[in-house]
Amino acid sequence: NAGVMQNPRHLVRRRGQEARLRCSPMKGHSHVYWYRQLPEEGLKFMVYLQKENIIDESGMPKERFSAEFPKEGPSILRIQQVVRGDSAAYFCASSYRDQPYEQYFGPGTRLTVT
Amino acid sequence: GIQVEQSPPDLILQEGANSTLRCNFSDSVNNLQWFHQNPWGQLINLFYIPSGTKQNGRLSATTVATERYSLLYISSSQTTDSGVYFCAVDDTPLVFGKGTRLSVIA
Predict the structure, then answer these.
(1) Residue numbers of B between 73 and 102 with CB closer than 8 Å to A
(2) How much of chain B exceeds pLDDT 70, in percent?
């Protein structure tokens, strides 16, 4: 049973470009969560999605960030017009049921903005 | 929102030693998980333990929900145990502590 998949694993973008991060949940999981980890810090929640719905986006910056989880295909975290402060590791997690339930994490995407 | 505090922040062990990591949380929770972030950055699920005690090999964990703390025990530590150990509680959403950075030296 494949785990949570994320790609790319590493992404380099220049300031002002767009970053697209993809997450495929574990088989049978329909709940996806995105977290951000800044250097030397713990993970911070960004957004919680189910298929075609955003359930909780209280941790998402108000501008430039968006997320989707379409009926078919992976969940996408999109960052427009990236800035140096967006450099971080972005982790996706999935769970079988609604919160609270055990979450399984992907390997993360390390975004570097130059 | 809920506060999660982990101690100690840093820990250096000789290979073969035992250790206890602590996680305190400020309110009742429905979910508590322990993770190991290895030196390559990957997050590995260790325990899903909202209450009670669980064991997996050299690792075990205990959560006393009524007293709002959880403990992670590592016995006979190995160099591969090095990394950062995170406790996370479900306050809808999952709230992480800052972690305990463990270094096991041969």
Answers:
(1) 86, 88, 90, 92-99
(2) 98
